[in-house]
Amino acid sequence: MSRLNISRREVILSLVGGMAGCVAKKRNSTTTPETSEPSFAKVWNPTVTATATPEAPVTATPEAPVTATPEAPVTATPKSYVYKDGRKFQNDLSCSPYGTYEILVAYESPGSSEPDNFTYEEVIKESIYYWNNIESPLPYPFLLKYTEKRSDAQMLISFRVPDGCGKKIGPEIVGCAPVIHACSPPPIFPVDPVISDRFEKDYTIEVTKHEIGHSIGLKHSDDPEFGNQFDNATSGLKKLMRSMIPSEMGSLRKGVWGEDYNWNITDFNVYVDYGEFYKDTHNRIKRQVEYALRYWEVDPHNYLSRQVSFVLSDNSNSEIVIKFADASDCPNDEEYFCGEFTGNDYEGDGIYDQYYQLTLNIPSRTVEYFSWLVGYGIAQTFRVDSNANRDLPPPFRGPYSETQWTTWWKKYQY
Questions:
Q1: Which of 191, 217, 244 lies at the terminal end of a domain, its last residue?
Q2: 206 in helix, strand or coil?
Q3: Would 176 disulfide with which of 28, 165, 246, 350, CB 3.0-4.6 Å?
């Protein structure tokens, strides 16, 4: 039996303050000088032209107008669009980098397996429906259409963990797509957005809609250099296309990290060492610990790869020991916690293959902070795989605040 002392600096990767979410990949010749006119040929004009057949000569039928469906919005009566210089046009494809009104979208999933409770096809179709049914601020019309044939797709979305985005590399990136500017030469097809495959359906849809927005020509709505793209956009579209930040990431989908669990049990006894705190504070401290343990039993954001439970115990040799002492075992400048594992190193490589005891030393003296500190300590020690800090649940992501530390647990006490 051996011990491994770890401090927060040795267990925790620094949280990245702002999330790129997605960054434009550089493309050759993605802009057209203002003095140049677009030179695209109209590949297809969606304006409906009536044709006669022997059985049914052309007649006007105002009683049966064309109606929209999720897959096919109204195209018989095209909308009017306006260039920045005030010129109006209808269904003018001269500014479309795709060159066609209909843009075919497919997907691939080279990462982990398909989710158990939703499909990526559903994600794609819901995202397509959104873009086909909003008032677009882009200077060209389009109709996104799902196809199962990847070889036909002009936009091929990949569901996997992004390696990076442009010059940005880091765990905070949940999606990436090139910005295909309007009125610019065509890109190399297919356009290739990447969407993280780690999240549940709702957040996956949000990221997919966001990256499709880049792929049809929109930058971030909070980028002051391109804010004029959203002058006439709805508040919902502006919100969708703003830079994505870590504190708003969604829940992980179940079963993504099943192999990253180093305990041989899921039911834990927990011993609380109150240290030098007076007895009249012990019940308050106990409640703070229980708040954190309850959160991890529910695990509302699917961070852990197992469902766990905790029982407070009087046994000082329990599987988990939480010490509210003078934290003399921690570095003097440690802010949050330090931990000590005891386990088995079966391979003799200096790395524990299995844990059987964890001690969390909490240096803070403010009782109201203890629930967050205990919860954070468990987050950083129950998953020590390379994706652990990338996936931290919302309550434990920065930036931190006094309110977050003292009230975070309330909405999770079901």
A1: 244
A2: helix
A3: 165
